Amino acid sequence: MWSPAANEATPFSPDEPAVLKSLLYANLIFMGPGSPTYAVRQLQGSLAWDIVRARASSGCNPGVASAATVSIGAWAIPVYEIYKVGEDVHSKAGLNFFSDFGMHLSFVPHWNNTDGGEDVDTSRCFIGMDPLITLVQQPASETRSGNLMSHTGWIIGFLKRDNVK
Q1: 5 in any annotated domain
Q2: Measured by CB atoms within 10 angstroms of the end CB, which terminus of the chain is less buried, N or C?
Q3: Three-state DSSP state, 117
Q4: Does the residue 2 lie in any domain?
Q5: E strands of the chain, at which residues?
Q6: Is residue 85 part of a domain?
């Protein structure tokens, strides 16, 4: 089963219960490629995001890859804005998925990307090493960050404390 939730201004709104029904019964919820900041804008405060968070707390495994990996963090790299539009290096608030579990984590996928060849550094989620250093040197917070190589994704599985011995 899948949910076509996409854009709040369409019949596939992430706030439309009929569109989201399959999320209520899913054992795996996968979010993937696209624009991290678009994902944050569409999901922040939405019924879809509330369902994803509630399902993760009740045993469903969320799976993320690419842009979704960026968007679920405490902060998100605005990849398209920096890489394609040429905006200055900055971050935006992410969906902060892990705050429900007492953690503030962010991720930089496509760590070893080489799509730009020798001409353009597309590593570090397409923004390159130098811009990433600039981003990391911005005022510190309690957020921890992790790196993921290209062509990877992960499935997050949580153990309930009462089941851990």
Answers
A1: no
A2: C
A3: coil
A4: no
A5: 28-31, 61-65, 75-76, 92-93, 105-108, 144-147, 153-155
A6: yes
pLDDT of 99-125, one tens digit each? 888 888 888 777 687 888 888 877 666
38 contacts: CB under 8 Å, gap ≥ 6: 67
Contact status, residue 79 vs residue 38, Cβ threshold 8 Å? no
Looking at this protein, which amino acid is placed at residue 22?
S
Flag whether 34 is in a domain: yes
Residue 155 three-state SS: strand
Q: How would DSSP label each residue in 8-53? A: TTSTT-TT-HHHHGGGGT-SEEEE-SS-HHHHHHHHTT-HHHHHHH
The conformation of residue 34, written as its DSSP 8-state character, comes to: S
Distance CA 66, CA 85 (A): 19
- Structure pTM? 0.78
Q: Residue 159 is encoded by which pair of tokens?
A: 């153990």
Instruction: List the structure tokens of 2.
Output: 């899948």
Domains of the chain: total:
1
Determine the average pLDDT of the residues in 17-39: 88
Q: Classify each residue of 147-157 as buried b or exposed e, where b means 16 or more C-beta atoms within 10 Å of its C-beta.
A: ebeeeebeeee
Q: Residue 28 carries which side chain, given as an amino acid letter?
A: L
